[in-house]
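Hi R.,

Here's the chain you asked about this morning:
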Amino acid sequence: MKNAIRCITFDLDDTLWDCHPIIWRAERRFYAWLQARYPRITDEFDPDALVRHRIRFMRARPELMHNLTALRKLWLRELARRGEYGEELVEPGFRVFWEARNEVELYEHVEATLEALGERYTIGAISNGNADVNFIGIGHLFDFTVNSEEAGRAKPHPAIFHLAAEKAGIDASRMLHVGDDPQTDVLGALGAGARAAWVTSEPESWTHEKKPDLVVAHVGELLHWLTDPGSA
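And here is the predicted structure, written out as tokens:
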């Protein structure tokens, strides 16, 4: 199977870095920015209440979940309305959050793995989020990126994987997608006709009938599987 692979795509959040502390920090930085400039909003919401308000707002609009940038800006307009502020809050408010959201700390093996695999494979990123590999400083390690805003569909929809295969100039069956999420990454890739590698520290937790082609504890293990002649 591995000899048929021509392209490897990677999920970003929680596959190449730990996302939760990044988002937590970004939300706190955004709150401090609001508190200094738009205090009527922070008078109404403490930091945790503001996050809960955002989550409720976004979940009520599932038709926009493929475009988190547009959805967050829509929420910022709602905050401005509630605080009786103007739309001048929206763009700089989004930028404060977005820049902090892209201050990531890569997992230990990521850069070396991407560099090594890039010598033999086309390397892509497929994400439902609005992380920017160029802003982060690792854009040179990818041949292309696809996000759900561009595709018009979020993982696990096949469209986003098919767009990635199109950018790579291959059939989806020659693409290996690497990600941490069983539904959006693994089953999504398999449903689109691609191969899937599941990144997990708990492989025994798999409960679905379809199985990933490969299970690794971290992306660095891909090198052994893809370069060792004795591997499957």
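One quick note: The chain is about 45% helix and 10% strand.

Cheers,
M.
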